[in-house]
Amino acid sequence: MTTVRDIDARGMQHCETTALGVLLRHQGLDLSEPMLFGLGSGLSFIYWDTKNMGFPFLGGRVKPFDLTRNLDTRLKLELLVQETTSPRKAWENVVASINAGRPVGLQLDSYYLDYFGSKVHFGGHVVAMYGYDDHDAYLVDTDQQGGAVSTSLTSLAQARAARGPMTAKHRSFTLTAPKNLPSPQGHIIPAITACADAFLNPPIANLGHRGIEKAGKLVRTWLQRTDNPQRDLPQAALLMEKAGTGGALFRNLYRDFLAECTQLLDNSHLRTGHRLYAEAATLWTETAALIAEAGESGDAQRLVQAGTVLSDLSRIEREAMQALSCLRSEAV
Predict the structure, then answer these.
(1) How far is 92 from 65, CA to CA, in rounded Å?
(2) 2 - beta bridge partners?
(3) Looking at the whole model, is its pTM more than 0.85?
(4) Tens-digit pLDDT profile for residues 67-117
(5) What is the pLDDT of residues 238-295, one digit of tens each?
């Protein structure tokens, strides 16, 4: 068995921040999960529905791996990304890193992992790998999936080779922190204002505050959108609350990020943003509950209520991001 020494195999709430935490702690940089998420400008929103989809999807974060790239840029890390169409070369890339004493991040389809309880294809899943033997790979995944886990080398190869929405070509990556480890404090304002700009100025109506407003209108039709509302609506609600989002469609994580920032920076706009995201987080959990209840009962009025709450959320989050965007004028 070959393993990287001194691994802190701590599972967190979200897969990408969990993997980033493992890689950065090994470099001597230990940041909270909300701070990793916030510095990576991870918060977003998308209402996603296509003809090929069985049911609409509500997403609450930026695209897979964008968070990692954002964090790399912000903290001036050295991000080495390797992709290949060759399974053999993909395995050699990983083995070389681990043999050199470095954990490696992997983007893959969680469907194939032995330990994964929910067999749903998700090609944007990220794990940290820190060891292997003749039969198994040793990974760190979210706390919900078990933290320090293992999966067969066969299943890992299938997960990495998968093709479909959000997949990458056997993507693996490592992070190297500079010798003078960065303090997050100086990077907070740029991370927040970049996130606010993207949220307030979405290129299409499905994204940002406009996407939430659109969701508020379309969610009212969801009972007619499916042949199996008792399955699909509770599943949508579960994805909002439990599928690695930290609860409230990532709003709990962003609320806690802003709370941590208020301990580092004394700023009224920051406090306003935190207050509004605390309100928003509660309302997102309420929305998920209403959607689940609508599916279980068939009561369309629950979806009307959910639509009203989503309309309120569009306004609340827009006001929060407008306040947070004001931080730019106060940045050094």
Answers:
(1) 22
(2) 132
(3) yes
(4) 999 999 999 999 999 999 999 999 999 999 999 999 999 999 999 999 997
(5) 999 998 899 999 999 999 999 999 999 999 999 999 999 999 999 999 999 999 999 9
Q: 149 has which bridge partners?
A: 139
Question: Do the Cβ atoms of 31 and 25 come closer than 8 Å?
Answer: no
Residue 73 and residue 299: Cα distance in Å, rounded?
47
Amino acid sitting at position 42: G
CB 112 within 8 A of CB 155: yes
Question: Please, are residues 282 and 313 in contact by the beta-carbon 8 Å criterion?
Answer: no
**Cβ proximity of 98 and 50 under 8 Å:** no
**Cα–Cα dist 25/8, whole Å:** 7
Fold of 2-30+78-176: Cathepsin B; Chain A (3.90.70)
Q: Are the beta carbons of 231 and 296 closer than 8 angstroms?
A: no
Tokens of 4: 């990287």
For residues 118 and 237, give the distance between their C-alpha atoms in angstroms, rounded to a whole number: 15
Strands 172-176 and 104-108: antiparallel
CA 329 to chain centre: 28
Give the whole-angstrom CA distance, residue 290 versus residue 296: 10
- Around 210, how many Cα atoms within 13 Å sit in the side-chain half-sphere? 10
What's the rounded Cα separation, in Å, for the pair 11 and 19?
8
Q: What angle do CA 68, 57, 147 make, to 5 degrees?
A: 45
Residue 146's alpha-carbon distances to 103, 133, 249, in angstroms, are 18, 20, 21
Residue span(s) of the chain under CATH 3.90.70.10 come to: 2-30+78-176
Q: What's the pLDDT tens digit per position in 297-320?
A: 999 999 999 999 999 999 999 999
